[in-house]
């Protein structure tokens, strides 16, 4: 736990509970805290880019270690009165609304019970790698998925694209921009004639023999072993992962999910500002936009935070109007009587 995080709670309430304290959740919380909303971020501390040395492609922060970026984000949320709790949400459910205003209960792994008027889900996603021996050990370093995140860092290296589905062809064309030495391992996927022709024209070598495993020397990949025993020397492997929104503990909310058409992932369905079909629940970042990098994830969190604040403001105005009208005597009430006497 870092200096900006609270120790676990027993019972607490907030206007908004943010589930997940990555770039999306923290930026949402920042907007809410600056709007003087009580906001509580619960974060289990395993952001997607944890294995990476630095965050790249983020203007003004290029190369910042992921943990350092989050540390600064937490500090900013806390500076405005927001709270950050290290913990894992194990259940979240809808409670009976207060009038028309939604209510939620959230339980943490340590048994703490939290309640809120709105939820922002920013749990990120889980990358599922192909089941190839030796691959997972190098995830985020020798095994990469994103040309924009680590492409520059692996430029001119002998790179292999380990195909995992239709997205891998596109992936290969992007990594070809970064190296002249690219090998495409078909690994049982479909590779049509048009793609093969493109690869020949772009000098990408195609290997059809299935992959048996990834070989390495200490921390460095040395090559890809094929099922016929041949070793194809490589230093870096690019893999398009299957991306699955992290849903653990959120099942009871009944949020609709959506599969990507090419089978490459599953996300929480949401509108443009992260609104879901469940009133009072918003979602932001990789949990709903599987391809979003840090900048777009943070931006989505900020937008959702602003919309949640607007929704609360509208609910408060409606409740206040009803209350105000009820407190006003009508024409047949006491005031009329007073005037008559
Ligand atoms: C290896 C790698 C390198 C990358 N490099 C870059 C890069 O250089 N530049 C870039 O722009 N993007 C990069 N990305 C993408 C980047 O990681 C994502 O865009 C970003 O993390 C999405 O932010 P998020 O807030 O949606 O999710 P995350 O950052 O994954 O944060 C989600 C948080 O929610 C928490 N959480 C999940 N479930 C629960 C629960 N039930 N209870 C409490 N907390 C929960 C998690 O512990 C986590 O801390 C990289 C990705 C990978 C895999």
What does this structure look like?
By secondary structure, the protein is an alpha/beta fold. It has 2 domains: 11-127 and 242-325, FAD/NAD(P)-binding domain, CATH 3.50.50; 130-238, FAD/NAD(P)-binding domain (3-Layer(bba) Sandwich), CATH 3.50.50. 26% of the residues lie in helices and 28% in strands. The protein contains 7 helices and 19 strands. It has helices at 23-34, 66-79, 147-150, 167-176, 193-201, 294-327, 334-340; strands spanning 11-19, 39-43, 83-86, 89-98, 101-108, 113-121, 125-128, 143-144, 159-162, 182-185, 205-207, 211-217, 220-226, 231-233, 236-238, 242-245, 257-259, 265-268, 281-283. The strands form 4 sheets. Strands 1, 2, 3, 4, 5, 6 and 19 form a 7-stranded mixed β-sheet that branches. A hairpin with a 4-residue loop joins strand 5 (101-108) and strand 6. The longest helix has 34 residues, at 294-327. The radius of gyration is 25 Å and the shape is elongated. Mean pLDDT is 94; it is low at 335-341. Bound molecules: flavin-adenine dinucleotide. Flavin-adenine dinucleotide binds next to helix 1, strand 2 and helix 6. Residues 19-25, 42-49, 51-52, 55-58, 88-89, 122-124, 127, 140, 146, 149, 246, 248-249, 285-287, 292-295, 297 line the site of flavin-adenine dinucleotide (FAD).
């Amino acid at each position: 736990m870092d200096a900006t995080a609270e120790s676990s709670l027993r019972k607490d309430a907030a206007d908004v509970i943010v589930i997940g304290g990555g770039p999306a959740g923290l930026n949402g919380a920042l907007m809410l805290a600056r709007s003087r909303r009580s906001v509580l971020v619960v974060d289990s501390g395993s952001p997607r880019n944890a294995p990476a040395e630095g965050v790249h492609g983020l203007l003004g922060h290029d190369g910042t270690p992921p943990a350092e970026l989050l540390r600064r984000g937490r500090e900013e949320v806390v500076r405005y009165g927001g709270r950050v709790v290290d913990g894992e949400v194990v259940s979240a459910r809808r409670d009976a609304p207060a009038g028309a205003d939604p209510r939620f209960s959230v339980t943490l792994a340590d048994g703490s019970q939290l309640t809120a008027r709105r939820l922002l889900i920013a749990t990120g996603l889980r990358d599922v790698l192909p089941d190839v021996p030796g691959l997972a050990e190098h995830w985020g370093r020798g095994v990469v998925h994103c040309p924009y995140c680590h492409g520059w860092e692996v430029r001119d290296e002998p790179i292999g694209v380990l195909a995992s589905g239709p997205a891998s062809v596109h992936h290969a064309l992007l990594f070809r921009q970064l190296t002249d030495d690219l090998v495409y391992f078909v690994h049982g996927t479909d590779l049509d004639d048009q793609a093969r022709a493109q690869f020949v024209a772009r000098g990408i070598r195609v290997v059809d023999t299935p992959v048996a495993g990834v070989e390495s020397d200490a921390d460095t990949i040395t090559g890809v072993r094929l099922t016929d025993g041949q070793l194809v020397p490589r230093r870096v492997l690019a893999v398009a992962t299957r991306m699955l929104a992290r849903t653990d503990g959120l099942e009871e909310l009944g949020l609709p999910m959506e599969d990507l058409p090419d089978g490459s992932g599953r996300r929480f369905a949401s509108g443009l500002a992260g609104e879901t079909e469940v009133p009072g629940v918003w979602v932001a970042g990789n949990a709903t936009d599987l391809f979003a990098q840090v900048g777009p994830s943070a931006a989505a969190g900020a937008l959702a935070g602003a919309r949640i604040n607007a929704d609360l403001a509208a609910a408060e105005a409606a409740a206040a109007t009803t209350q105000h009208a009820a407190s006003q005597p009508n024409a047949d009430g006491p005031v009329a009587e007073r005037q008559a006497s």
